[in-house]
Structures
1.
Amino acid sequence: MDITISKLKEEDLGTLVSWAEDEKTMLQWCGPVFDYPLTVEQLKEYYSETERPEPKRIIYKAVDVNGNIAGICELGAIDRRNGIASLCRIFVDKNFRGKGIAEMMIRKMINFAFSELNIKRIELNVYTYNTPAFKCYEKLGFVREGMKRKITKYNNEYWDGYFYALLKEDWKA
Ligand SMILES: CC(C)(COP(=O)(O)OP(=O)(O)OC[C@H]1O[C@@H](n2cnc3c(N)ncnc32)[C@H](O)[C@@H]1OP(=O)(O)O)[C@@H](O)C(=O)NCCC(=O)NCCS
């Protein structure tokens, strides 16, 4: 599939709002970061970090030949002093899943982090029930380091989360 990867722009935020179609989808994708329903207003504040010098957050988008945004992925909590960052808020539009788009975006982000940002360790969190997501991270070489119990409340249930990391020395670009 012909996909281009570039930085997310402020005018793309409306597409992200359309993906948060219900609270569960938003929580699974973003963690307990935004209030449901998601709004462009909330995302503008979140996005503004990407525009600072030495940002703590970088967001990529995948775009198809017709200009449709197929997905996004974020490198957040960028800690340049310790060389650590977190991969988060990865989402692929339902119409584009299963075509290798998440893998493509994440590979590009990992290469950037290890080669341009001097990052040595990339971490991520994923809910334990989210098999498509953690299979994708495992395929890329992320190692499960543990599990945190009951980290997010959704209605009357609590979700557990795995935490994973990838070290620079284990990454083959
Ligand atoms: C998780 C998600 C980002 C995967 O996106 P995708 O573009 O469909 O994934 P890819 O096509 O790049 O798949 C890469 C690998 O992930 C794994 N994978 C993807 N979908 C899978 C599924 N439904 N079941 C099992 N493994 C799956 C496979 O290992 C796959 O490699 P393979 O095709 O060689 O087997 C997508 O399902 C999504 O947006 N989910 C909703 C949001 C979300 O939960 N985000 C993660 C938050 S932590």
2.
Amino acid sequence: MLLTGRLCLLRLHSPIPCPFLPFLYSRRIFLHTIPAAKSQLKPSATETKISQPSSSQFESIRPSLFVPPGLERDDVTVDMVLPWSNIVVGPYAGDAQVNQVEFIKSSVKMKDCPRDQFPEFAVIGRSNVGKSSLINRLVKRKEIALTSKNPGKTQLINHFLINKSWYIVDLPGYGFATASKSARMDWFSFTKGFFLNRDTLVGVLLLIDATVPLQKIDLDCANWLGRNNIGMTLVFTKCDKIKGGKGTRPDANIRAFQDLLKQFYKEPLPWIMTSSLTGLSRDDLLLHMSQLRNYWDI
Ligand SMILES: Nc1nc2c(ncn2[C@@H]2O[C@H](COP(=O)(O)OP(=O)(O)OP(=O)(O)O)[C@@H](O)[C@H]2O)c(=O)[nH]1
Ligand SMILES: [Mg+2]
């Protein structure tokens, strides 16, 4: 049963060309602008009203939405879409609270990882993208996962047990510029093994720094996961940072990434904008994870 659920879910992400309409960006990003750090981040009731698309506009958004299991795309209404994302909330969403978190262990190799069959989400991305910070924010603990300004802080596979029933896994970052070539190769051989053999993996949160221009290594990673039918959610980090004047803005980066990925996927990948500094999308990301987890658990 578990496996059937998982395979169906993963099939949603199979990499086949598809049309993609990024209209949702217009609604969520261009009308609201990227939020400033420590400001009120969720759109206010007035803003939501202003930005509510007309029914014809919503029809053009519809094809770019991530529709979870248990829902038909035609049945989605605008209020089912999570803010700052293309994610629709479906019937499997629920149980999104984090009541308890426990660091279980650090493992050097996959064979040392916990074997208790709880569903798990792997958090991956380039060094310094904010993986450990996001985990701390999700579980509302300041330093349960160790963070650092210097890339390469997380070196092991760290399992955090949530509510005694599912795991978040903090993995070492890739693309650490000053790491030796052999260390970088090791990262790939190690993680490939983890993703292909870990049968409790519900999905991957692929973190992408929204404040730096598109990185080939992130695209390569997304495509590798897609080719191997591993379900992923694109989590754009550091969306509190506005680069005024020159420099790349988060919205432009997110659009560029989506534009490139859309050629490879039959169905739109779920994406969400976050900030661990301000808590943007914390609850919504947990809700999304709950629907993936609950479906996997059928
Ligand atoms: N402004 C801002 N800074 C962030 C955010 N998330 C993380 N950072 C900062 O980015 C740096 C790296 O964060 P980490 O969470 O350690 O990154 P990581 O991906 O776990 O890094 P490695 O373990 O080295 O792979 C730290 O200085 C964080 O404070 C965010 O949402 N906004
Ligand atoms: Mg880390």
